[in-house]
Amino acid sequence: MGKKVTLSVIKADVGGYVGHSSVHPELLSKAEECLAKVKSEGLLIDYYCGHCGDDIALIMTHKEGADSEKIHRFAWETFETVTEVAKELKQYGAGQDLLSDAFSGNLKGMGPGYAEMEFEERKSEPVLIFLADKTEPGAWNMPLYKMFADPFNTAGLIIDPAMHDGFLFEVHDLIEHKKIVFDCPKELYDMLVFIGAPARFTIKFVYRKADKEVVAATSTQRLSLMAGRYVGKDDPVMIVRSQAGLPAVGEVLEPFAFPHTVAGWMRGSHHGPLMPVSVKDATPSRFDGPPRVVCLGFQLAEGKFVGPRDVFDDPSFDRARQMALEVADYLRRHGPFEPHRLPLDELEYTTMPDIMKKLESRFEKVE
Ligand code: 13P
Ligand code: 13P
Ligand code: MG
Ligand code: MG
Predict the structure, then answer these.
(1) In 95-174, which ranges are continuous DSSP H helix?
(2) Angle of CA points 220, 222, 227, to nearest 5°
(3) What is the CATH number of domain 1-120?
(4) 315 forms bridges with which residues in the sheet?
(5) Cβ contacts of 155 within 8 Å, gap of 6 or more
(6) Pick from 76, 83, 66: which is nearest to 104 by CA?
(7) How far is it, in rounded angstroms, from Cα 341 to Cα 324?
(8) Span 303-330, mean pLDDT?
(9) Would you state the pLDDT for residue 85?
(10) Closest by alpha carbon to 114, among 176, 65, 42?
(11) CA distance 60 to 341
(12) Residue 250 CB–ligand 1 contact under 6 Å
C-alpha cells in the first residue's frame, strides 16, 4: 500500500437541470449514496461530491493509484446509476457523457473526464480542485502557465528556493495523441508556441523540477474527437497542490482574476470569458453561459477531505466577474460572427458539415 495517497477527480454530465444550466439535487444525492457505499466498503478513504453547471465531479482519495480499474469502474457505474435517475426525471441530455455501452478496464476514451495524482501527503497538504462548465481542457493552459511559470503572477518563483529551479510541463497533443515535456523557464518560448493553441495542446501534468513531485493534473479528453460528432463540451477539472515549496493558494488563484477567453459557450461553439464564481453561482444561464469555474479548497488530513472552502466566494473576484460580464456583452454582439463563434474547423463536429454538404453542389467555380 505504501504511504502514498491518490487523489482522483472524475466528472461527467449525465443530465442537465434545466437544459444545460445545473444538476438536479436528486442526481447529486444518488452520487453521494454510491460514494458513501464504497467508502464504507473500504475502497475510498474519503470523498466529496462536487458540481459545476450541469457536470458532477466525484472527488475521491484512495490507495489504488492513478488509472485504477477499480476506481474507474466505480465512477463509470456511479454515472450509469445517476443516469437512471436523470432518465426518470427526464433531465436534459440524460447520460450525455457516457459514450460507451459498457466499461472496459479504464475510462480513457469513454466520455467521463478525470484528473488524478498520487503523492505522499505533506505535513500540511492544501489542495485546490477546479471544476469548469461550458469550456474545454485547454482552458487550464493559461492559468497553469501563470501559476508555475510567470513571476509576475507567482512571487514564489523568485522568492522561494524550492521553486527557483522551475517546473516541468507535460503537454498533450489531443489531435495526434502525442506528448512532450517542457523544462521551464528554459523552454518557455518553445512551450508557448503549443499551449497558446489550447484547442489542440493541453497541459496534462506539472511537476516540480527539483524533485519531480507532481503538483498539478488536468482532465484532457475531448468528447467530440472521441464520438466523431458534437456531444457537448468537455467541461474539464483540475487538481493543484499548494504552499510550502509550491505556489501559495493566492498564487494559484491569481490567474483567475483575469477572465480569459475560452471556447465552449453555447452549443460548445462560441468563445466567452471564463468567469470565476461561487458554487451557488455556477449555473450558466445567459446564452448558456458565460463559461464558469469554481474552486473547492481542501486541507487533506491522512487522505480525509477537510473542507471544502468555496474559494471564489470572495469579493476579491468581483472585478473579474464584472469584467467577464463586460466581455460577454462585447462578444455577444458579434452574434454568429467569429471570433465569438468558433472557427470553421472547430465546428467540424457540429451539424455544420451537414449544411455544407447540402450546399456543396451549388458552389460554382470562380473564373
Ligand atoms: P503565512 O505567513 O500566513 O503562512 O503566509 C505565507 C504565504 O505564503 C502567503 O502567501
Ligand atoms: P454542456 O457541454 O455543458 O452539456 O453544454 C452543452 C451546450 O450545448 C450548451 O449550450
Ligand atoms: Mg449538458
Ligand atoms: Mg457541462
Answers:
(1) 141-149, 156-159
(2) 145
(3) 3.30.70
(4) none
(5) 251
(6) 76
(7) 17
(8) 98
(9) 98
(10) 65
(11) 36
(12) yes
Q: Cα–Cα distance between 257 and 314 in angstroms, integer?
A: 11
| C-alpha distances out from residue 336 to 154, 161, 177, 274, 307, Å | 38, 50, 31, 20, 42
Q: Look at ligand 1, atom 6, and give the residue with the nearest C-alpha.
A: 248
**Cα–Cα distance between 345 and 268 in angstroms, integer?**
13
Q: Which residues surround ligand 4, an ion (CB under 5 A)?
A: 13, 53-55, 133, 235
Cell of 354: 451537414
156 CA closest ligand 1 atom index: 8
d(CA 132, ligand 3 centre) in Å: 12
> Per the residue annotation, which of 67, 92, 150, 230 is the catalytic one?
230
**What is the pTM assigned to this prediction?**
0.96
Q: What are the pLDDT digits (tens) for 159-187?
A: 999 999 999 999 999 888 899 999 999 99
Asked if 204 and 172 count as a contact pair (C-beta separation under 8 A), the reply is yes
pLDDT in tens, 23-42: 999 999 999 999 999 999 99
State mean pLDDT over 5-22.
97
Residue 364 main-chain phi, psi, to 5 deg: -110, 155
Starting from the CA of residue 18, give the closest ligand: 3
CA of 271 to the centre of ligand 1 (A): 36
What are the residue boundaries of the structural domains of the chain, listed by start? 1-120, 122-353
For residue 216 the three cell numbers come to 498539478
Which residues are CB-neighbours of 340 under 8 A, at least 6 positions away? Answer: 270, 271, 272, 331, 332, 334
